Amino acid sequence: MGEQDVTLAESRQERQKFIRHLLNDVKALDRMLEAGQFETGIQRIGAEQEFCLVDRSWRPAPLSSEVLQHLNDDHFTTELAKFNIEINLDPLEFKGDCFHQMETQLNQLLEKANFACSKEDAKVLLTGILPSIRRSDLELENLTPNPRYLALNEVMTQLKGGEFEFHISGTDELITRHNTVLFEACNTSFQVHLQVDPDDFVAQYNWSQAISGPLLAAMTNSPLLLSKRLWAETRIALFQQSLDLRQLAHQNREGSPRVFFGEHWVDGSVAEVIKEDVSRYKLLLSAPLEEESLKVLDAGQIPKLTALKLHNGTIYKWNRPCYGVMNGKPHLRIESRYIPAGPTVLDEMANTAFWLGCMRGMPEEYRDIAKHLEFDDAKRNFFRAARMGIGAQFKWMGGRQLPSQEVLLKEMLPIAREGLSKVNIDPTDIDRYLGVIEERVSKQRTGAHWLVDSFEKLKKVGTRDEAIVSLTAGHYNRQITGLPVHEWDLAGAEEGGNWSNRFQRIDQIMSTDLFTVQEDDLLELVTNIMTWRKIRHLPVENDAGELVGLVTTGGLLRKINENPKLQDENIVVKDCMATQLFTVTPETLTKEALKLMRENSISCLPVVRNQQLIGIVTEYDFARILEHLFEELE
């Protein structure tokens, strides 16, 4: 869950005090490793389920505080945004029916969460990125107001020294900026933990890195962000860019983002990873610490290593080493952070069994993975999988170039089956969970495929926003059936609900594919654009992208009638544009915009935010809404 009682490391004295605790924790870790004090001979598993809250319109519902009050259960905790919640499942010994136990508990807790949400007219949705998230949902008002998140946002924005920049290219392209860390809250995942013996940590950690690409290819479930089709698992790029504190001023220096795959195979022990992270990454947060870890060790007790855990919690490796204490014994874990939430509990459990089976089934010949696979190839495989999903090609063991399906079906699934058999997992459960993976890969039907295919079908019969609403509703409707995603049919437009779900706000109906001109452009350009594109409204922007005027066919004809000289070929836009404009914001209610147009006898409304033009709504858009309303009344 992470420490919540944290502060910014603002003063030099406070920073030095915390760093002293951190360095002592590293020394204590070294001593415990050398003394063989870590628990061995047993493997436990655990998981964290992040999920989204959606309202009756299938939009993010910032109700985590209210829902958590209804729940009153320590398994549940907050996340960065008010529209997300996390479940921490109980740790289980990795054997027998552990997956059945985990699935049962997860279903029970999600059922409890759904009941609590129903009291606030909300629902639970399991998805890597909620398709219906809008930019307006990522404003500071939706940051969960607890000390950890407030401090994290403040220190990260300070260190960034400007806005966070996003550039992700797929079928569509996202280029934008944001002034908080809340873009990270778009991501929800199913994080799986595996306890490992210290002597096995290096081999197991390196193996977890090596298999990340192929396994991710089979699990992708996050292809859409802000109505744009990006990567098969957009979370990978989005998470890195949303917490990237590197500055352009330091572009000539080597540097690693805090969301990181790695740069090399580990050689030594878990302490090597920890020491590199302490060396590489700036301290972000502090906390009031009383424990002196070295003194605790000297007294024959086991320290919590709170400073080390807090610092480690601000470094978001896709395979992250973790330290913990259970039943008075310290242990080491590897946390897999790249598995997305959803699409169903069964899909998540299949992903979990696949990862854990592969980890436990690591062939002996791969204990020294560097002899078989270059680290850079493993890293490239990971990002290829994030971009392309099952369509990715991998540089695999022994320098082979293989399609992901071949790696998954012929190599990874047999390894996973062998690994689960080694720890005596119930054979029925092995067949059930790995059968889901086999079917999904064979049919090439991941959550990412379902989302993109449904979206492309839906936007042929409506706007992008209508498609997104229907898509989100369709996802929920299929999620509650429990069927794995490879068995889902595509979402239908009728699933989006009535007009209030699809047309309530201007950002649901506005056009964003805009043609604009500037003040000094020739009027002849304007008339040609209007003719070529069959449009009657052309916004005018200045060099800063600010809306400064509007040219309409009606207004243009009136001005030409009043002043025939405007037909001269040297006339420019500023001579004939309207400058007294009525505008709306994306959040304006559709009925209010319609009233504004009617009362002022205007045929369009530019949509602006901070003086920047982001869309336009016209009479045509309202005519289309009317058509849908009549269809609903039939």
Walk me through the structure:
This protein has three domains: 7-361 and 369-441, Creatine Kinase, Chain A, domain 2 (2-Layer Sandwich), CATH 3.30.590.20; 447-502; 507-633, CBS-domain, CATH 3.10.580.10. The chain is an alpha+beta fold and 634 residues long. Helices cover 41% and strands 17% of the residues. The radius of gyration is 27 Å and the shape is globular. Strands 2, 3, 4, 5, 6, 9, 15 and 16 form an eight-stranded antiparallel beta sheet that branches. A three-stranded mixed beta sheet has the order 19-20-21. A hairpin with a 3-residue loop joins strand 17 and strand 18 (400-403). The model is unreliable at 248-254 (pLDDT under 50).
In short:
The chain has 634 residues and is an alpha+beta fold.
